[in-house]
Amino acid sequence: MVRLGFIIGFIALLGALLSGLAAYRVHDQELALDRIALARAIDVHASLVQDRSTERELLARVASGLFRAPSVLKPNMLEPLRSAIYAFKTDFVVAGWVARLQPNEVAAAQTAIAAAGFPKPQIRDYGDKPIDPASLTHPIDVLMDLEPRSEETKALPGRSYDNDPVRNAMLARARAEKRSVASDPVPLLRGNGPIGVIVAAPVIPEGATEPAGFVTFSYELASLMLTNDDLSLFSVALKDPRKEGSELVANDQGVVSTRMTSPDGPAPSATRTVSFGGRDWQLGYYAKSNSARRAEQTAIIVAAIGFAITAMVCGLFGYVAYNNLRLSREIQVRIGFERRLTAVIDELNHRVKNILAVIQSIVTRTLRHGSDIDVARELLIGRIHAMSNVVSLLSESQWQGVKLKGLFEARAIPHADRIAVSGPDIAVSARAAQSLSLLFFELASHSDEGLSLVGKHPHITANWTVTGEAGEELFQFRWEEFNTSEATRRPDSDFGLILLDRVAPEALGGTAKRYFTEVSYVYELIAPMETVVDMTERDRTDKISAPVRPAK
């Protein structure tokens, strides 16, 4: 009996020690994994908020850059920009043109606002009280045009921002720093409207030192902060820059409200800083669940199970082995998920940077000094539409490539109805699709100039073939415009020549040539199929999109 009691006591002691050790390990593992998951989710969210903010600030810069020596008294100032700003597909509430008027320009401004069809053309302060032009001694900032126009927004043009503390401070800083600037959080559209942020970009005419006005975009704060995610591990709050010790939070319906923080209240689990409109914004992240309490509860459960199983001598070691195996697999799955998430984010950042670099090059080359603003605007909008179309096609295919015939859609290139397309239905890689989309747009956009003078349009053919043996196939593309000549065809732009002769061939690792025949204009491109299809890119996309499995 003594020996049996000793054995039972030893087994009980061993079981208690093992159960306590298992509970301790589970507690630490659960706590560490929850903290890693929360930190990673917060980093991803902050990165998305920063990218979203950068995209909206870029829209303001591009919009202001499209103005060339604007007349502040011209009605419908945003008319040339409407297609451009909607092409970015951002969720702005109102886009506006705020002109900086001299006292002697107030009467003409009222006439221009009335001519644009707005119901309240009289210049007035932000409280809707009329302003006497004779009392003005300095320039004032007046809203002249906006987009979209609705029953709620049509009454806003004519208001001066000079007596609005938030908007006036924003415009004064943008005027002084000569760059895009964001305002403090402010109600939009009306006094009880949704809380949002306004970003203003100064428009400085060529040769001037002071801005002629400002292009403004208003965004709701909830969508800018990405707050409405019921499945997230945390809730998001924005530190209110207007008042110390207060935060801006959004409910499930996206309504933003202010709450006060207390030194005795819960502190945020983490804080992150994002830059937008020339200033830093601090985001506070509050975990929705108590990781320490959940880890303690899990540890208690494990310990209780361990003590109960101690009485079952035969099942003790089997249970411990099974429990450890289960915990090990869970850790492996979570670690694999974290690695996969990091790879996806790195790949996304790489592709977004590539697209932004291409757009920056397009804008810089198109809006070069001395270019005709109307032609440049048309080419810029077309080129950005071509890029937007190919990105949409790539997104639909999960970046697995684009069918080559899909790049000839009417929404992407002009005169698509006159192009006879033929060739095998191959899927080209993401990099090749971007280069070919811009190439096709450049060819199509220069194919009609001058021919309307003789009463006929060119007949265009675009065909491609794949030749050669397996492993050494060649992609051969030929563009031919009939009924045209060197005298009637619109000359290629500087950007177009660089794209046709150098950028597109180098991107595909091939060669290109262009020439005129007696009856047509011809452009030919030859490249290896391995660069046109790029299986390594497809394999990489397949790899990061595959489901996560536990390591063996």
UniProtKB/TrEMBL annotation:
Protein name (record): histidine kinase
Class of this enzyme: transferase
GTP-binding listed as a keyword: no
Native species: Bradyrhizobium campsiandrae
Occurrences of domain CHASE (ranges): 129-232
Catalytic reaction annotation: ATP + protein L-histidine = ADP + protein N-phospho-L-histidine
Keyword Transmembrane belongs to the record: yes
Gene3D superfamilies: CHASE domain
PROSITE patterns hit by this protein: CHASE
Parts of the chain that traverse the membrane: 299-322
Keyword set, alphabetical order: ATP-binding, Kinase, Membrane, Nucleotide-binding, Phosphoprotein, Transferase, Transmembrane, Transmembrane helix
Domain of life: Bacteria
Entry-linked InterPro entries: CHASE_dom, CHASE_sf, Sig_transdc_His_kinase_HWE
Location of the protein in the cell: Membrane
Pfam assignment, any one: HWE_HK
EC code(s) of this entry: 2.7.13.3
